[in-house]
Amino acid sequence: MAIVRRSDQVQSDRYPGIKRYAMTGASTGSTMLHIGDLTYAPGASVPYHLHPHAEETQYMVEGELECWFDGKRFTVRAGDAVLSPAGVPHGFVNRSGKPARQITIFPMINPVTNDLMDQKLEPKLVDGVPGKHVSFRSQMKPFEFRPGVSRYDMAGDFSGARSTYLSELTFEPGAVAPNHFHPAHEESMFCLRGSLNAVYGLQNDLPLHTGDMFMCEKAVRHGIFNGSRERATLLAIHPVLNPPPRVDVP
Where are the beta strands (DSSP E) in 25-129? Predict the structure, then answer.
């Protein structure tokens, strides 16, 4: 298990004007996920690039970015997610006057990145949206996962993924996601907003605060509940397709 506390994290420079927190990866003991938390200053961009052997999911936390995706250009905002398949070129630029923030997810430890253009150049693009590879929050409705827990499914086979499942869950005070384990894969759980409590093995009350990441190994009992008096939101991240194989336990 690893709990990466936001208070212990150090930002690195990913590209000019872009800071990154390493949330899950080899440094946290993960063998199946590579997750980062990026903040774009106004005008900053991730150059047009591709990953030859790995898909990437980009989830927008706040602000807005112009997304470049396989020759198309469109805008993503808070709550939207993009699934970039292996080998498909993509990139982002912040054309707004405010910072933007994004979570990036790979279902492998060491993804290879091939930049296709210089940082200062932009690809030739046309306005358009690449079909199923984008989940726009404005077009979605949450569903009740458990009493007091609502869920958006953000990336999975429905968005063209082959080995990633991402969901966003909002917990009302007192709400519980039942204890379970995944027989053959890890799960990373990111406390996006508010405060939550995690179950891990025989430990039943591990606090998670905004910005904390909880990574659980395969075949280990875990769960989440909201022991606070405020609503809280969690990202559940799996390196497998939906529905992720799971076994419910007491």
Answer: 34-40, 45-50, 56-62, 64-69, 72-77, 81-84, 90-93, 100-106, 114-115, 126-127
What whole-number distance in Å separates Cα of residue 209 and Cα of residue 220? Answer: 22
Q: How confident is the model at residue 19 (pLDDT cuts 50, 70, 90)?
A: very high
CA separation for the pair 197, 74 (Å, rounded): 37
Pairing of strands 2-4, 213-216: antiparallel
pLDDT value at 16 more than 90: yes
Can you give the length of the chain in residues?
250
Average pLDDT, the chain: 97
Instruction: Beginning with the edge strand found earlier in the chain, give each strand of the sheet holding 203-209 in spatial order.
Output: 203-209, 195-200, 222-225, 176-181, 247-248
Cα–Cα distance, 169 to 233 (Å, whole number) = 6
pTM of the entire structure? 0.97
Cα–Cα dist 104/57, whole Å: 6
Looking up tokens 């405020």 gives 230
